[in-house]
Amino acid sequence: MTVPRTALKKWEKVREFALGLPGATEDFPWGDTVAKVNKKVFVFLGAPDSGYPLGVTVKLTDEAVHAHALTSPGAEPAGYGLGRSGWVRVPLEPAGAPAAGLLCEWVEESYRVIAPKRLAAELDAR
């Protein structure tokens, strides 16, 4: 399965943004790419070569932001029961998929929910 170049560029921008947040690290559980802070995942990035459509999964606890994310083409509550905790999977490939800038806003929102307060404060100080 070939990943469309626009989706791959978005994925790369979102990954770079996520890893630039204070204390963020990259890990590869289950062969997928995730970004963690304080050993906790704040964004599931999947893998461009996984054979699955490319997408990101973020935790959005603000009701309006969560609802907005779910209006994206193909977006759905995350599997494995994570959707009940506010996690949303957003595909990057469909026409009308969110732009990288909006995805990065959602990644930051997810980071702020997961990160220790001191790291979120460091982000605010930037």
Automatic annotation (TrEMBL):
Q: Which Pfam families match?
A: YjbR
Q: Does the keyword DNA-binding apply?
A: yes
Q: Which GO terms describe its molecular function?
A: DNA binding
Keyword DNA-binding set for record: yes
Q: Which SUPFAM superfamilies match?
A: YjbR-like
Q: Which UniProt keywords apply?
A: DNA-binding
**What is this protein's name?**
MmcQ/YjbR family DNA-binding protein
Q: What organism is this sequence from?
A: Streptomyces nigra
